[in-house]
Amino acid sequence: MILNFLMFFFNFIGLIMVRSHYLMVLISLELIFIILFNLIYLYLNFFNFEYYFGLVYLILGVCESCLGLSLLVYLVRKMNLSYVNSFFLC
Question: Is 48 left (phi over 0), alpha (psi -120 to 50) or beta?
């Protein structure tokens, strides 16, 4: 359990420090998602609850990763950029 919190903390620090490439941001977010899913699973297993909430969380994470990868493919094909620092959204 302590290892999960340490991994979450270091991935969050890595997300903040290495924000230059879009794919690296997606990988860091997916690692944070997997660690949070593991913590939810451990919590539900400890109290003998049902695992439906974990399943819904996993489905939402898969949708989020598909959306992120499709946005990455769109940016690389249409605008020829994949760096987060060059985005002008506002």
Answer: left
Separation of alpha carbons 76 and 22, rounded Å: 10
| Closest C-alpha among 38, 15, 39, 36 to residue 27 | 15
Query: What are 75-88's pLDDT values in tens digits?
Result: 778 777 666 666 65
For residue 2, the domain's CATH number is 1.10.287.3510
| Number of compact structural domains in the chain | 1
**pTM of the predicted protein model:** 0.78
